[in-house]
Design brief:
The protein is α/β, with parallel strands linked by helices and 164 residues long. Helix 2 links the parallel strand 4 and strand 5. The protein is globular. Strands 5-4-6-1-7 form a 5-stranded mixed β-sheet, sandwiched between helices. It is built from 6 helices and 7 strands.
């Protein structure tokens, strides 16, 4: 994957819905993404959780990226980054399940959750990262040092995914 990838933390939420503050955070993230070249050629991939989907919808609409791509794998990786041995493989599988075989030169925004964002920013999953934050991800830079074999391993491996 040689395209520009940006991880976005979903907007603030209450229950199953973004709050007004969360919607504003999503709009701000969308404006920032557009300012760095995200457009109708770009892809928006979200966790399957409603707060991430709603954030992704706001971003996709603002940059004219359609359709919105959703993935349970992104949700699981976002909430359980210690179970991710290879983030690049998770991203590739999530795109593949949405019919995207290759990114090419397209930009990709991935709307995800605090634990993964915390790892990306602080190296740990409980470091604070504000809602609506954007963090660049360079392929092949995921540190497997945080990887801890556990219950979600089977879900986040290519072998299991391909058997489903």
């Amino acid at each position: 994957m040689s395209s520009q990838i940006q991880l976005v933390r979903h907007g603030a939420y209450s229950g199953e819905h973004l709050t007004l503050e969360g919607e504003a955070q999503a709009k701000f993230a969308a404006k920032r993404l557009k300012s760095i070249g995200f457009n109708d050629e770009s892809l928006v991939l979200t966790s399957d959780k409603s707060r991430a989907v709603q954030t992704g919808e706001i971003i996709a609409e603002f940059i004219d990226a359609q359709p919105l791509l959703k993935s349970q794998l992104i949700g699981l990786a976002g909430e359980h980054p210690h179970g991710v041995k290879d983030l690049d493989s998770v991203i590739a599988l999530a795109l593949e399940e949405n019919g995207v075989a290759e990114l090419g030169e397209r930009k990709l925004a991935i709307v995800t959750h605090m634990p993964l964002m915390g790892v990306m920013v602080h190296g740990i999953d409980n470091g604070p990262v504000p809602n609506g934050s954007i963090v660049p991800y360079e392929p092949n830079t995921w540190s497997s040092e945080i990887y801890q074999p556990g219950s979600i391993d089977a879900i986040l491996t290519a072998d299991h995914f391909n058997q489903q």
